Amino acid sequence: MANRLFRKKSVDQILSDAEHGGSGLAKILGVKDLISLGIAAIVGAGIFSTIGLASYNGGPAVSLLFVFVAFACVFTALSYAQFASTVPVSGSAYTYAYVAFGELFAWIIGWALVLEYAVSNMVVAISWSQYFVSMLEGFGINLPKWMTMAPGYALDAHTKALSVGADQLENIEKVALQAYETAPRFLDMPIIFDMPAGLITVLVTALVYIGIKESQRASNIMVIIKVGIILAVIFGGIFFVKPENWTPFAPNGLAGVMSGVAAVFFAFIGFDSISTTAEECKNPQRDLPRAMIYCLVICAVLYVAITIVLTGMVNYKELNVKDPLAYVFSYVGFDHMAGIISVTSVIAITSALLVFQLAQPRIWMTMSRDGLLWKKFSTIHPKYKTPSFATIVTGFVVAIPALFFKMDFFVDLTSVGTFFAFILVCAGVLYMDHSGLSARSKFKVPYINGKYIVGVGMIIALILTYKYSDENLSHWLEMGSANILIHKSLVIIFWLTWAVLSVMSFKYKFSLLPVIGVLINLYLMSELGASNWIIFVIWLLIGLVIYFSYGYKNSKLNKTKEA
């Protein structure tokens, strides 16, 4: 059974399945279209909302966090690019894991990618709703409060009002209480839901269903608009910068800067969505690697520049708002610009929603083609040439939770699945180099011999940690073994992984850059809360139940070997 769990698909087999398996996807995307889709995915809710909270926690130094996360993503993007040039089919990290690690890991990654795409789209849809409602209010249009939020917010406000009184509520809580009190009732239960979040998901799903060409055109237009406004913010905001706002540069120290890891990383997770469109590219082996690197560099520069400008225009303490870009211009008295940004932010977040909604069905389509999901998921619409059934299911999976769940329930959870996928893709390149598969790659991660560097780097890191983290180490000693196991297990796994990679790098002369990608992503994972990991483990267990009850016995590889 163990051999069957880790059965692998050859590159030739995957390419043959894509070519002869009735894919039928339209090949129309060039490198400019791919870059546009990448920018659409990356420059979305992150730059228009979560950048404010990250700046509030980390101060001006959060710009360095964007550099660090972009740096981490470069190593991952190089690894993605090598896989994309070797296995140019839809499926992203799921397909790459099937080649490198076998079926069980492929399933786990495919299931984890649901968190990356579907769950992150719930966050994006809810964020879009907040901006859309604010924009309508700017035009004097006020939707009923019970139609614009998750019921959890209203119930929390009602409970708090009963305990401390309505006068003690904050402004946002008062709005939520108003939703509870004015909502229509059914069996004495208030009917409260986030209608704009559900509606935009349905509309974007319909666009994705109609075709890749229509989606690509809409994405290109929205990217031009939002990049234009971001450049206007950067170059216009320079004139309002006060250098004294950059002091202190890191008011809350390294802990404050790193507290924004989930929010900052959420801003970058979209670059791998490009790889899911491989079968719709004119020349995927050439264009996918280029597009991944180009869009990541462009977006990193935009993020760093806009963070420096924002924290220079106003004090970082003022940035804990949901619409930081619009807020800073209102703060300096440029209300006209603030209004333009509010409208543009709705367009920007719509484009991110579109790309994520485009990616998820194509992963399910690939998994279905391999027999791990029901055949219906690989159905291609005869007219629109899109994975029709998978697209409709994705619409339901995103729209229903977006109508009723709080956004903070999903935010950090999206990063967990993404880090997991990124680590396996980087590790997969090490496997390709060791097994000789890299000889088939049209693009390769630049090789730097890590034989001695990985181990020496670990020794230096341990010395620096011991020398400059005395308080941290003493805190560990006070925690006790049980608490260390609960709260610091990922940190322990990080150091153990580094030790193992040091030994293997010395033995097999591993390429340094993928090793760095594994370590940086694992380190960032260790910064996420334990509660996110508990939910992630439960999610994986549910996925394993589905795999062993259906995918294991219906896998095409299984049926081939039985025959």
TrEMBL record:
Database matches in InterPro entries: AA/rel_permease1 (IPR002293), CAT_C (IPR029485)
What are the TM regions of this chain, as residue ranges? 34-56, 62-81, 191-211, 223-241, 253-271, 291-316, 336-359, 384-404, 410-431, 452-469, 481-501, 508-526, 532-552
Q: Please report the name of this protein according to its UniProt entry.
A: Amino acid permease
Question: GO CC: one term?
Answer: membrane
The protein's predominant localisation is membrane
Kindly list the organism's lineage: Bacteria, Pseudomonadati, Bacteroidota, Sphingobacteriia, Sphingobacteriales
Domain of life of the native organism: Bacteria
Organism from which the protein derives: Sphingobacterium zhuxiongii
Which residue ranges does the record assign to the Cationic amino acid transporter C-terminal domain?
A: 512-555
Keywords from UniProt, A to Z, are: Membrane, Transmembrane, Transmembrane helix, Transport
Q: How does it sit in the membrane?
A: Multi-pass membrane protein
Q: Where in the cell is it found?
A: Membrane
GO molecular function terms attached to this record: amino acid transmembrane transporter activity
